[in-house]
Amino acid sequence: MVKKYLQVTKPGIIFGNLISVIGGFLLASKGSINYILFFFLLIGVSLVIASGCVFNNVIDRDIDVKMERTKNRVLAKGLISSKVSLIYAVVLDITGLALLYAGTNPLAMWLAVMGFVVYVGVYSLYMKRHSVYGTLIGSLSGAAPPVIGYCAVTNEFDIGALILLAIFGFWQMPHSYAIAIFRFKDYQAANIPILPVVKGISVAKNHIALYILAFTMATLMLSLGGYAGYKYLIVATAVSVWWLGMALSGYKTENNRVWARNLFLFSIVAITVLSVMMSVDFMSPIPKAMLA
Prior knowledge:
By secondary structure, the protein is an all-alpha fold.
């Protein structure tokens, strides 16, 4: 029984997001770590993300049964009732937000609220099923965790937070489109209007390349803005160029499914590596007097 309640929170998504939370937190901490703050941040964000995933499972249970990769999810198989799941989700969300408010700061909590509302209220309830721009809206919630981690330390939404929002927001787009191409038949069967299905794979390839270019520029801004060091810059450049090269190879591929799967897998490697590098190669922002 416990396993079912754990599965419905999508532990893999929670873990993946925590890596970016830690990246944002350590980037802002600059070597001076408040471990109590860190503890409340990780538990609070984990619970809010878990809540969002449970809500998403409830909302998507009708389309999950139509998709090969989701047909065995707990709610798709009816192993937990929707009513119990909703109560579970509400408890997780309230607890997580309370921990963020009490253990970090109100800004971090409100950022979590905004990410949650966008993911559950805007994306899951409406945009995912009705608009080709659903992925773009959803990317805002996907980019929230590292910003929450950063702002938990700084207690202000500054240029560094904006850069993190851009990096992780732009990353979400090619990552999501790669999944949609790799699982193309699933998205067709569920009638989800994501770009590759609506506009075609060729158009999606153009968007993937453009978003990776935007991602590349955003990653460089973290060093150019004085928030991360040269080691981060070198690694970020190498990772971005390699990912862009993989994207461009899609124009010549004879197997879109294999290409998209590799692109998707590398996207996870790319964002993990960047999160680690910003954690260990941080810098203090350039003093304004030096910029004058």
